[in-house]
Amino acid sequence: SLYYYALSPNHLSFYPADRERIAEIANATAGSVIPSLDECLFGSKNPNGCVRSMHDEEAPLTNRMTRFFCGYAPECQRAHSPAALYLAQQHAIQNYTVVGVLEHQAESMALLHDRLPQFFGTPNAVSITLDQMFVNKRRYSYPEPSIEARRFLAEQNANDMILYRFLVDHLLKKYQALSK
């Protein structure tokens, strides 16, 4: 999750708000165990949760994919809105040659080879397994988030979840058309 990644030593963020909040969490948890995601979201020690902006409908930590693809139009300021989702979907289709999906790496790569052959070469030129993609082999052990936490995160990121399914469907349709 973004929460555990943000607290890991591997974290790199270009968002100033993230860096500030992560510094607050790091200072609050210095010398102690990092709170679980459930403690972060619903913990009694911090009434706003350690990811307090998650509790704000227009939080910058939610619907990041929708915000990215939507752009800077006024409708995009409310990433939870149907208008932002619609614009994100339209921009992803119209402005990107291919939007790859890691879970569909083979299909994504086939489309990239087809659409950008000068950059990606022949389909067999780039063959990377998922294990090879993850350079950091360290594994962290964190408690699984509760059903309540998963439900809360799904509600807070509903547009991203819809957009993700839309992009996967779009990718697979483009791949099927390529395969014919």
Description:
By secondary structure, this protein is an all-alpha fold. The protein is 54% helix and 0% strand. The protein has 10 helices and no strands. α4 crosses α5 (82-95), α5 runs parallel beside α10 and α6 (105-115) crosses α10. The longest helix has 22 residues, at 158-179. The radius of gyration is 19 Å and the shape is globular. The model has no long low-confidence stretch (mean pLDDT 76).
Concise overview:
The protein is mostly helical and 180 residues long. It has 10 helices and no strands.
**Oligomeric grouping of the chains:** single chain
Query: What series of H and E elements makes up the topology?
Result: HHHHHHHHHH
DSSP E strands, number: 0
Share of residues in strands:
under 5%
Helix residue percentage? 40-55%
DSSP helix count?
10
Largest sheet report = none
What is the 3D form? globular
How far is it from the N-terminal to the C-terminal residue, by CA? 37 Å
Radius of gyration: 19 Å
Note the main attributes of this structure.
180 residues; 10 helices; mainly alpha
